[in-house]
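Progress note, sequence design subtask.
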């Protein structure tokens, strides 16, 4: 069990893609909750059943991270408010000093096989570097952040845009081969997402892949996590349409109603919408969305078409229209439709905070490898075939029952 000498020491939350909409909402949310500007609504970790875990207090979280864009939190929060209206004008002025304090802990991110649509966002250019030097720089940045704030631990969360790199088959399968690829600068077989996961876990920091990009779920990284005794989990945060699907689809299965087709059309206009409009960057995201439904219905033949289009006028307000064609008794064909609209960044931000608290608890209590109890937060949970949201959530509450009595630094 990991022990710190001082149970008042704080924990770092290091965000990859810190200046995106999710990062801005996390920064505003943590500072705003501390100042009484916002409630804790939306935070799963604040539910009563998880209080016995003695999770790290929200006030003990210190934000840092990296980004490929040269900007600041105040500017990004103001932009998000102007475009989506989800932070509150008065709150931005109250939080300006909090935002400025975090900016000093945002370093320059890396790009590797991320795709042209992502690379065009970059405004923090560095000289070309070897893969080994990229890994070293990531580790130096995280460790420097930890030292500056005397942090007991740092949780690293990947919030970066979906990468174009989508062929997991060419990634080295073993840790030894992955390390050789890094040393040999084999750029075609690796990506930024894989390097971030490798760097964080190799340095001993728990890692969460909230992005749809290939990262900590590949065999070589899982091997590294076990060797370093570090917890990790991913991938692809489940925030909107897929959340509804994984809650609703078990109803059809339980009532023995045969789903013939489930067509989902997603439209959004923020930076993610622009990135996912490129088929190369959207490939893994679309696979994750379709796979969940096929697994729950136990029917790989179900027509589960999903598309994502960029509609710039919507900005952060992600909208999904789902059309469900199903067959019931007397072979009667019926239809169900629903529309889901949510503020994309505001849906995701509390889940990142939840994941940081839960995975820090796992690390503090000596757990390592894929943290399967966190499956309910992801579209494609690592090593968890179960896709029903209710069953996944039960895994999390069962974890709380098993570990709620465990004494840790914070008891």
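Output:
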């Amino acid at each position: 069990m990991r022990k710190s000498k001082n149970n008042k020491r704080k924990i770092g939350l290091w965000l990859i893609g810190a200046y995106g909409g999710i990062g801005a909402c996390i920064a505003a949310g943590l500072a705003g909750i501390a100042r009484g500007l916002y409630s804790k609504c939306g935070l799963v970790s604040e539910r009563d059943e998880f209080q016995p875990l003695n999770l790290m207090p929200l006030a003990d979280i210190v934000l840092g991270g990296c980004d490929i864009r040269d900007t600041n939190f105040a500017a990004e929060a103001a932009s998000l408010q102007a475009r989506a209206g989800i932070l509150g004008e008065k709150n931005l002025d109250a939080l300006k000093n909090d935002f400025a304090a975090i900016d000093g802990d945002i370093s320059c991110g890396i790009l590797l096989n991320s795709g042209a649509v992502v690379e065009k966002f970059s405004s923090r250019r560095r000289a070309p570097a070897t893969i080994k030097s990229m890994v070293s720089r990531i580790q130096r940045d995280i460790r420097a952040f930890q030292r500056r704030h005397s942090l007991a631990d740092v949780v690293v969360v990947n919030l970066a845009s979906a990468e174009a790199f989508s062929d997991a088959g060419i990634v080295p399968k073993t840790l030894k081969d992955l390390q050789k690829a890094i040393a040999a600068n084999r750029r075609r077989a690796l990506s930024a997402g894989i390097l971030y996961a490798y760097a964080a876990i190799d340095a001993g920091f728990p890692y969460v892949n909230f992005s749809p990009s290939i990262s900590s779920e590949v065999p070589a990284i899982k091997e590294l996590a076990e060797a370093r005794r570090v917890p990790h989990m991913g991938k692809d945060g489940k925030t909107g349409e897929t959340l509804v699907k994984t809650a609703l689809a078990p109803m059809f299965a339980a009532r023995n109603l045969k789903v013939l087709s489930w067509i989902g059309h997603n439209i959004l206009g923020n930076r993610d919408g622009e990135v996912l409009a490129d088929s190369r960057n959207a490939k893994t995201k679309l696979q994750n969305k379709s796979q969940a439904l096929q697994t729950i219905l136990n029917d790989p033949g179900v027509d589960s078409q999903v598309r994502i289009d960029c509609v710039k006028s919507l900005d952060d307000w992600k909208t999904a229209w789902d059309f469900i064609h199903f067959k019931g008794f007397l072979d009667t064909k019926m239809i169900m439709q629903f529309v889901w609209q949510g503020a994309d960044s505001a849906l995701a931000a509390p889940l990142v905070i939840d994941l940081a608290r839960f995975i820090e608890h796992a690390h503090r209590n000596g757990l390592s490898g894929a943290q399967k109890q966190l499956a309910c937060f992801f579209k494609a949970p690592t090593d968890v075939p179960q896709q029903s949201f209710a069953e996944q959530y039960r895994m999390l509450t069962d974890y709380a029952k098993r570990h709620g009595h465990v004494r840790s630094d914070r008891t």
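The mean pLDDT is 91. Work on this subtask will continue into the next period as scheduled.
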